[in-house]
Amino acid sequence: xxxxxxxxxxxxxxxxxxxxxxxxxxxxxxxxxxxxxxxxxxxxxxxxxxxxxxxxxxxxxxxxxxxxxxxxxxxxxxxxxxxxxxxxxxxxxxxxxxxxxxxxx
Length: 105
Fold this sequence. Notes:
The protein is mostly helical.
């Protein structure tokens, strides 16, 4: 389950600009909303899902203000560490190898 969430979060992060334009909820926008105050939330929500360059840039500006790249790396590192801990608990060496190979893709 955690590996699937990590995979989707990676996809969301790597495609964040396209997701903004399409109004697709994902890790970056949800994290930004969680970090924002009431006024910031209002501004993000007003711009989210609009395809015009100004709207997309407004949300991307919030991503920069919130240091989203650093937040992403913190989330990814923490999640990978936790998943590796779960993988290492498996008794089967073969399964550990398979799950580590999937994780490292």
